[in-house]
Amino acid sequence: MKKLVTTILCGMLTGLAAFSMPKNAGHVSAQAAYTYQSQSGVSASGSHTDSSYEDAINTMVANGTFDRSSLTDAQVAYINQKYGEDPEAFSELQKQSDYNSSPSLAAINTGSYSHDSQFDGYDVIDGIDISRWQGKIDWKKVKADGVKFAIIRVALRTTESGVLEADALYKENLQGAIDAGLDVGVYIYSQAISTAEAKAEADFTMNLLKGYDINLPIVMDFEYYTGNTGRLARAHLSVAQATTICNAFCKEVESKNYTAMVYANKSLLTNDVNSNAIAKNYQIWLAQYPGWDSATGSIHASFDGKYSYWQYTSSGSVDGIAGRVDMNFRYVKKPAAVKNLTRKTASMLSITLKWNKVPYAYGYQIYRLNKETGKYEKIGKTTGASKTTYIDKDLEINTLYSYQVRAYYKLKDGNYYGAYSTPVHATTQKKTVTNAAVSKKAETSLTITWDAQTEVSGYRISRLNASTGKYETASYVEGASSNTWKDTDLNCGTSYSYKVRAYYVEDGKKAYFDYSNVATGNTKPGKVSDVTVSATKNSATIRWNPQVNVSGYKIYVKNDANKWSHLKTIKNKNTTSFTHTGLTGNKEYTYSVIAYYTKSGKNTNTDRSDSVTVLTKPAAVKNFKAETIKADTVKLTWKKESNIDGYRLYVKEDAAGSSWTKIATITSAKTTTFTQSGLTSNNGYKFQIKSYRKYNGKTYTGESVTTSAKIIPQKVTNVKVKSYGSKQLLSWEPIKGVNGYYIYRYDTKAKKYKKIKTINNGTQFIYCINAKASSKYKYHVTAFNKIGKTVYKGKRSAAASTVKTTQKVKVACGVLNVRKGANTSSKILTTVTNGKTLTVKGIRTSRGTNWYKVSFKKGRKSYTGYVSADYVNLK
């Protein structure tokens, strides 16, 4: 037999963790006490008298010496009881024992495998099959390890009692595999011995799959329990009976639009079922674990029949799963082309297609010819290999359609598509309404008539939507003889277009015939509709819907006598708005619009439109002022406004980035003052006021007015006066945000403090005074804020007296020049660096800059010179 050889890279994983049972859903480790909870809720537990059996079995598994054939009947019965007659209990315990005997596992790509010649041209895809016995699985790691698909046990039939049960971890495994991006199929471990049981197993399995998107087959795991025991082995089915049972399962699965498959080992497929008969319609999953064939230099299956999956070992290793796992190959190529595509039936609005089944397909895609593009476009799909019909609905009557169908396999890494079928052509079944016309016209209605038809159920009238350009259903008229309809509640002087088509009721649905000719008519001009108005403080804008068959419009406003006064005539019929200017704020205005049209050389007015009323916005508040009355308090005042409901006040700090905050809503128009306390910022504040009026359920707000205020500064602190030669240096702690400072010196003759200096710089904190060091004075410093011509002075500082002292300064920059004189053009004597301490000998002011006369040593040399006060700090 010719073989297609695929060489797989070798690799070994060692030191893997021992196999463990799932630790949820009522299960614990296979090597610990175990209670199996069946669906009926009855617990099957080992009693204290079973401890010797459990110890013996755990010891055999742990030592790697477990062997089904060496167990006593009592031990076998104990295992059946302990694991709830799970048909995979013995094989999984054997896997665990084998692993403990030889913990080095075959990695997913271990060995070299060759594939039967029937798979020439096929893609070979790696996968696994698992159950609750693999415990908690990290599916992302499984995917990353190269696994493309997983077939997951979701159910089983117990080996003795024949009860159907769900796998304890099927939900977690299904969701995990799907979320990880694997292709997923499922299986049930069958012990069915009749077609009724086979169908029940299929239905039980499919019921568990609700809400899960699987794209691989639902599998009947048809095998004997260990040692050819269990109810299936004891049934001694004939080949024909076993084959019928397998086919019954698959047929039931595919009747629900899934794809079915049968799993069995080589011996069972060869001797106990007619695998060729099954393979004609359903896939076969072969289980065979061959050894190395030195003749071919590979590992290969020796089954001569047809199969689609090959389980080639039960001793594989995959990252994310502890212990040994079953490994599989899947063989895939494009499905066969769909054959015998035909029209099954056709009605007035639908066509039903049918075709021959393509065995093994996931589903089918249906394409219909787009006559405009000349290309076939997908219109639908079916799921399940046996779903071989499709109904194309909502078609046009008496129209020819062309179709193609193709089968496909659905895979996460990309679908496999079969060739398109030969096209089939089918035609739906006709009647056309004639002589549609607008027969009567009124201001708000039009009457449409048409020629009555025979053998129809009624008529649908469609009206053109001018905004979308599409005809939309306006009404239905029942009865073949009914041939008139009145469209009411229309806009006056407006053009409308209609089409009429007959319909026939088929199976509770309407099948429509061709449309009639277009019938167009204009309603008579009437009063202008949808008039609206909006306003500012001194204007109002009126808008309305355009009218057809009119010459223009007339705008009216109610005067002070509450009578209509003509405001404007608009002679352009396409103009649909007008703005009335020069209005008074906070006043009510009412408007209406009249259209006029020319008939027999005379202008005729339509009825007056519905009136619309608007309130112009209130005027801005006048004389809004702010007065600082305390250190942290500002009083706001304004002029009373008439015909309003109140005022809204806002505040923000007079600094970049600050925003307005509402501080009060005053609900009385008579109130004209408000006091805001708790102010702290020397930057000052801005205040805003808006008047408001409530009218017809809306609130109208006037324009905002803004004013400013500064609070009274804090008392200046830390005032000091020090004498240096012919100068005295006054210093203090600066106050953030103030505009400046006043300096006062005590006049001993006048016996009071007199202002000697105004400093208009809020950040300055020293001032040099021309006064001899021997002179002793007292000083005060007062901070001030200023808005316009108003000055807000803080309290005077504590008095500071002249102190003759030795003052030290420290250099506060990287390198500072020491000059011969007190200016920047003077000769540089030397430089000093950051942190150097200098002794102040005097102070001089030059061109607005204070200079300290300093002395210091640098190395062994002494210096006396001048440094700028801007680059040193007083110590």
Walk me through the structure:
The protein is mainly beta and 875 residues long. It is 11% helix and 43% strand. It contains ten helices and 62 strands. Residues 1-49 have low confidence and may be disordered.
Q: What's the structural blueprint in terms of helices and strands?
A:
Blueprint: E1 3-7, E2 12-13, E3 35-37, E4 43-45, H1 51-63, H2 73-82, H3 89-101, E5 105-107, E6 112-116, E7 123-130, H4 139-144, E8 149-157, E9 164-166, H5 170-180, E10 183-190, H6 195-208, E11 218-222, H7 230-234, H8 239-255, E12 260-265, H9 266-271, H10 275-279, E13 283-287, E14 309-317, E15 325-332, E16 342-346, E17 351-354, E18 363-370, E19 375-383, E20 389-392, E21 400-409, E22 416-417, E23 424-427, E24 437-441, E25 446-449, E26 458-465, E27 470-478, E28 484-487, E29 495-506, E30 509-515, E31 519-522, E32 532-535, E33 539-543, E34 552-558, E35 564-570, E36 577-581, E37 588-599, E38 602-605, E39 612-615, E40 625-630, E41 633-637, E42 646-653, E43 661-666, E44 673-676, E45 685-695, E46 698-701, E47 705-709, E48 717-724, E49 727-733, E50 740-747, E51 752-759, E52 766-770, E53 778-787, E54 790-793, E55 800-804, E56 807-811, E57 815-819, E58 828-833, E59 837-846, E60 849-858, E61 861-868, E62 872-874
Parallel strand pairs: 5-14, 7-8, 8-10, 10-11, 11-12, 12-13, 13-14, 48-55
Antiparallel strand pairs: 1-6, 2-5, 3-4, 7-15, 8-9, 14-15, 16-17, 17-20, 18-19, 18-21, 21-22, 21-23, 24-25, 25-28, 26-27, 26-29, 29-30, 29-31, 32-33, 33-36, 34-35, 34-37, 37-38, 37-39, 40-41, 41-44, 42-43, 42-45, 45-46, 45-47, 48-49, 49-52, 50-51, 50-53, 53-54, 53-55, 56-59, 56-62, 57-58, 59-60, ...
Helix pairs in contact: 1-3, 6-8
